[in-house]
Amino acid sequence: MDKLRITGGRRLEGAVEISGAKNAALPIMCAALLSDEPLVLERVPRLMDVATMAKLLGRMGVEVDAGGNGVELRARRIADPTAPYDLVKTMRASVLVLGPLLARCGRAKVSLPGGCAIGARPVDQHVKGLQAMGAEITVDHGYMHAEAKRLRGARIVMDLVTVTGTENLMMAAALAEGTTVLENAAREPEVVDLARCLAAMGARIEGAGTDVIRIEGVGSLSGARHRVMPDRIETGTYLAAAAAAGGKVKATGAAPESLDATLEKLREAGAILRVSQDEIEIEAEGRPKPVNVRTAPYPGFATDMQAQFMALATIARGTALITETIFENRFMHALELQRLGANISIHGNSALVRGVERLQAATVMATDLRASASLVIAALVAEGTTQIERIYHLDRGYEAIEKKLSGLGARVERVK
Ligand code: UD1
Predict the structure, then answer these.
(1) How far apart are CA 334 and CA 338, in angstroms?
(2) Each residue of 74-114: pLDDT tens digit?
(3) Which of 116, 343, 398, 405 is most buried by a 10 A CB count?
(4) How do beta strands 224-227 and 39-42 pair?
């Protein structure tokens, strides 16, 4: 298993090109199931999760042609509308095939995702919504078996804000008979990007980006070409790294408008930010000021940025309170950060982080994707060489991370 060795203490300087968003690319790839014509995607990040999704779609009979930063998908016919356990367990986003398969084939068999490292994460809202649209769903031997001759539009009030739930239902509704209204929908930019792609395929969707989305079902969807939005979490991660390590970093090809909450917190931490249409430059010196964060659905502070801000807080000039409201078990990085000398105490869903003057290198273990990113940030400021194990988590979500960090002057090495 690959490891990452990072020698801390260097300032970060230079530019980093932002990749396409993983969390936009994955649902958009599933949208290919809704049409028998080709869906051509640009700026698809080269990531493990994208390869897993391509494999899953390929097994169903989708033709997948990947080259450079583009992927062409064509679901001429779907041989087997099944998402097997071995793939769903490695990537929860696999559950995003459920809505499209049901809409296109009238049936689907999708493994239940089960628990994952950051909490229980059920899919009851996906199921409830599809049932409201007329689907019959039973669970048997760990699989959801869904059937519907043709889905019907419905008014669905979601009990809580769920990103993939909103996306699954939006895709299903695109081919349903009649109008679907999703209330309490997720407002995340990735939902908007999916809606843009669906619209290019001929779907009729209004309100994406607000909490009420209206979808008028159509009889069929066509092929389209779509450029995936820039990854706001990758962007935020490099900016947080610069805020921690100090220096001057410019994120290029970014989408600043999707990062308001993160940028605000970086300013609070004392960084100077210069924002243009698709670039964000950060300049930071010395130890950051402590900033409290509380995760919330978009446009609130993203749970996917919580771990990186905890790393930043470990070396702040004071105490920060970090509260996680989305997932119940998302502080595993705290224990690893403590191995690097951080002073963190956990109280329920809050972590009190008392900033220390310096961290010291150690061997640490990556436990999930964003937890790994926080360890990278901590390693960049720690004295000595930190070894991060199990970096396959990082490879799931950060394209060419060691190359991008080296490009900024960090001392990073991948050990096979
Ligand atoms: C997506 C993102 C993930 C991010 C998360 C929260 C993708 C591929 N993943 O994950 O990176 O951390 O949004 O912004 O885009 N819930 C239910 N029932 C459901 C669905 C969700 O109770 O049917 C709960 C979950 O347990 C969680 C909360 O709702 O507490 C948010 O989940 P959701 O937004 O669905 O997260 P994901 O879509 O899994």
Answers:
(1) 6
(2) 999 999 999 999 999 999 999 999 999 999 999 999 999 86
(3) 398
(4) parallel
Q: How far is the CA of 166 from the centre of ligand 1 (A)?
A: 10
> What are the pocket residues of ligand 1 if the criterion is a CB atom closer than 6 Å to any ligand atom?
23, 26, 92-93, 119-126, 160, 162-165, 190, 303-304, 326-327
Residue type for position 87:
L
How far, in Å, CA of 200 to CA of 222, rounded?
8
Strand runs labelled E in 247-316: 247-252, 272-275, 279-284, 293-294
d(C-alpha 230, C-alpha 192), whole Å: 13
Give CA–CA dist 60/151, Å, rounded.
Answer: 21
Q: What end-to-end distance do the CA atoms of the chain give, in Å?
A: 6
Q: Are 277 and 270 in contact (CB under 8 A)?
A: no
Report whether 376 contacts 394 (CB < 8 A). Answer: yes
Structure-block tokens of residue 410: 């960090």
**105 catalytically annotated:** no
User: In this predicted model, what pLDDT tens digit does every residue of 298-343 receive, in sequence order?
Assistant: 999 999 999 999 999 999 999 999 999 999 889 999 999 999 999 9
Ligand 1 centroid vs 6 CA: distance in angstroms? 31
Relative to beta strand 12-17, strand 247-252 is parallel
User: At 208, which helix (H) or strand (E)?
Assistant: none
- Shortest-distance atom of ligand 1 to CA 327: 30
Q: Is 108 in contact with 96 (CB distance < 8 Å)?
A: no
Residue 165 has which token pair? 């739930």
Nearest to 109 by CA among 86, 74, 140: 140
In DSSP terms, 82 is beta-bridged to 109
